[in-house]
Each structure stands twice: as C-alpha cells, then as structure tokens.
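To: structure desk
From: M.T.
Subject: fold request, one chain
Message: Could you run this one when you get a chance? Sequence is below, nothing fancy, just the single chain.
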Amino acid sequence: MSGAATKLGVGTHFRLDGETVEVVEFASLATGMEVVLKDGRNRLARMSLRELLTSDRVELIHDRSGPSAADDEDVAAVVLSRLTKDEQKDVLKRTAHVREMLTGYRSGSEHLPQPNEPRPQYAAGLPLKARYEAKAVEMGVTERTVRRWARAFREFGEAGLVPKTAQSDGGLGNADPRWVEAAVEVLKEYERESRPSVKVVLEEVEARVKSTFKLVKVPVPPRTTAYRWMQELERRHPTFRLSTQRNRDIADRPRKVYGKLRPTRPGEYVLMDTTRLDVFALDPVTLRWMQAELTVAMDWYTRCIIGLRVTPVSTKAIDAAAVLYQAYRPQLVPESWPREAAWPEHGIPRGVLVEAEAVHGPVTGVWGPKVAPETLIVDHGKIYVSAHLTSVCRRMGISVQPARLRTGRDKGPVERFFRTLREDLLQRLPGYKGPDIHSRGLNPEKDAFFFHHELEAIIREWTAVTYHRRHAPSLNMPLSEEALQFARRLAAKEHTYPDDRLAIALLLKRWNLGLGTSLVERRMALRLSREQTALDLPGTPADDVRSLPSVARVLSLPEQLAPPPIETVQDREPEAGDDDADGLEELEEELDFYATALKDIDDDE
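Reply: Done. Structure tokens follow.
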C-alpha cells in the first residue's frame, strides 16, 4: 500500500485488486488484528491488518482524513462498541444520510454507488446550502441540526454523530467526573461486603462528595439521573445485580490478559484436584456411613487419568503424593477385569514371542499410562502447598504451578471429569446423595453400602473400561474398513446396538447392580454378594481390621476361652438318678418365680 503515516479507521476507503472497499469493522483474533471490508455490492470480507498495510494489492483512497491517535475524541470503533445494537443502527443510518448530503453517495465514495445514486437533490453541482435544506426536509429536523451533524462528521467521523449521552464514558458523558470518582470509590468498598441497595449507595456517594470536595460545590444529579448513572457504573463494577460471590470473582480479575497453557506432549502439564464424592461410603470398623473424597491426577495432553485415590472423610498430603506416585507406577489390572481395561504397552519391540498364556491366560498389564510429569497444576489447598508434596515434586524434578484463586476454569478438564464421573457412574450406585443439598433424597445415608476402598476399585475400573475408551473411535488407528465391519458384526451377535451405555450396564451387572431390577432387588443382591465374597477377599477391610492390635489380641485368645461346641441329642449320654428329679424341681421353682413377678407387675399396672 502506498502512502506513509496513513490514518486507518472505520470508513477508510481502499482499492483492493482494482475494486473499491471500505473498512467497516476491526476484529481482534488469536492470530492477530483483522479488518472487515465491504465492497460496492455489500459483500463482506476479512483481511489481516498487516497484509492491508503492506500488500501491493491494496491502495489507499485519500478521500477523507480518517481517525488519528492524536484526535481529541475516541475513534468510531471504540465509541460504537459502547452502544447497543439499536443505537449503533441509528448512528450508522445517520452517517449514511450525512455522507449523501456531503458527497451525493451514502457510502461517501463515488466508487461505491448504490442504485439511483446520486439523487438529484444531492448532486455534486448543487450548492451545499441547498443540500442541507433538502436533507432537513427529508429527515424532519431543522437546518441547524443538519449543519451540526455535518460539522461533527467532518471533525470526528462517525464518532461525532453519536449522541452526547452515550458518546463519552458509555452513558456518563454528562456526569461530573468528581461524582463519578466518588461513586466508584463507594462501589469498590462493597466488593467484599453484603449487597446494598442503590438508594443507600447514592446517599453515601452524596456524603462522600460533600466531605471530599469542601471548597467547591459539586452539583448533585437528580434522582432519576443518578439511578441511570449508577446503572451504567453497575456494568463496570457489578454490585446490585449478580450474586456477591460472582461480584467478588469479577473484582479479582487480573488487570492484564492471561495467556493460555497449551500442552504439546504427554506429561507436560498434569492437573491434580480433590473433590468430595456424591456417594456415601461405609466405615469398615463401625459400619456407619461416612463422607469420602476423590483425588485424581490427569494428563492434560491425553486427558487420561494417571492416578486416583479415594480417602475417608478428608485427604492428606501423603494421599496426594500417593496419587502422584501412580503416574510413575500404575497399579496392575485385576484378573476379573476385561481385557480391554489393560493399557497397551508403548513402543515397538525388536522381536515378538507370543506365548499361549499371553493369549488365553489371565489379564496382565496396568490400568493406565505411565507418565513422567513435568509441571503440576494444583489449586491453593493445604495438601497441595504443603511441605510434603512440594518436597516430593522437588525431588522428582516437577515444577508446581498454582492456579488462580477461585478460578475453576484453570483446571477445566479435571472439573469436567468429576462431572462425567457423577453423571455416568456415581448416580447409579447405592448411597448417591446428589450434587447439592437441593438434589438430595430423604435419607440416602441408609443406602450406603461400599467401603471407600471398594469405591476406589469401582471408579478405577470404570475409568479404565469406559472413560479411557471414549476418544478411541476417533483415533487414527491402523484399522481397515473391513476389520471395522468384522468387529461390528462380532459385537452385534450378542447385542443389537453396542455403545458406551451398554458397556456401563455390563459393568453394573458384574457388580450385581443391574439396572433392570428394582431398588429392593438391588439391595438384596448387594447383601448376598457381600455375604459370599466380601469376607474372604484378600485386601478387604477384614484383613485391615485383623491387623489392628486390639483385634489381634481378641483373635489370639486361648481356645479354652471359646464357647464349647453345641452337642446334638445323639451325642449325649443317658442320665439317670436323683439328679433328674432335682433338676426338675429347680426348674419348677424358677417358673413359679417368674410367674409371681409377672403377676406383681400386672397388679401394679
């Protein structure tokens, strides 16, 4: 583009590839600044601002001065952005009328004519006074108003045609700066307080103005005007409309723009967070219900869960360190899990020797990927800023990057995992209490059934079988179309419509929680499975209880202290003699005693 020190803004005209275009809007994108161009047929196109200023295809049309950084008024793009859609439409319509009055064309350029332009009453050969009079009659205003529009347009462009009530400071153009300053101070003081009323704030603003500016008299706006100005300030400093928590979050926003982390490889960023499960668990010692918390570690690049742990009541720093340890050493897949739950080994071996046990034997492998974390993103909880976890990260060479305070979107992927876990799994388990107090049932505590370690096993299996296999259909795998069709036919032999919901249903069936049964039947099945398997499984809470010193002492009591075995009638030797008669006499005396006692009770009543 030819020309130096060019003033670029809305309304500036260019010749692009021989066709005249006009700048109508600026757009700020992640790739940089772009401009929106409109040609003579009202077609819109986007173009990079850098290309517009440097390309040889573009030539500037010097038909107006355009905006400048040295202008006293804001550029049209800034002023128009403060207006509503209806106000913007009115200003652009008025701008077209003024351009037609001055140049004979609504676009302002003879290179972008519209049908039937120029009209006879606005021809370039007519005196400017005659065109003013014609436009005043057409618009239904005075000639003085039309002249004022023309003068403002020549001096400030479209920004000069914006009404004064909305031109400066977004509706505060007529407000005294001293009153606005005092109002902002009062609103900022209520950022951490309870929500006040507009009336109280206005009274405090008036008192603040009088106490601050004692030597000069600051005009106090009328009541309706003050309410309108306060409504405009509400857009910048929310105080009356939103919740107080939301107002505090807005007030704590950074003044500068934050960048966004973009993971480029596995392990680059690991998200770790803790949440309270929406399911009640059972205490393995007292068999009473209790709260449980879930701590997970997620690889941001793959969105895979690389570690999790369910803890009773609350989570400690050592629990968070144990979750981080699982990233390096994932747990083995139990034999009862499906084969697809095992995470495939990475890399290509030099040689492959397939054994029979590897094909037909038990499931082997780990439930998740092995990842070496580089940066750990955590919140400001005590367990994550503790000396224990930070020392572990320092020993392993992991950088710790805390998220912003009360900003859950900094850990958005792991927050979304918690929601998916609740919606797809937890609400199907007994003892589900809902995400909040308003969603809770009458007494969900009585349905609590699983111990916290059993909840962890269920969540781990669901993660390996279902959650980790959601992005699989979309992966670029070495699978031909024929192989895919063959796999679908194999699945269709057992199920007509195999999908993710079916996989969850099969998972629940293995836990004796089939969705086709009633709540009573499900509870009965749970109790039966508990009686059959829970007491004999290795690693169950029964083993943990037996390891307690007090329980061990009870279990190691001498056999003579145990109750004698129950004898059957056949094992007894026949007894004879006077002892039988004595025993019967004693029994009759006892029966007489109880009968007398019961009779005394009846008499008292």
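Reply (cont.): The first helix runs from residue 49 to 54. Let me know if you need anything else for the meeting.
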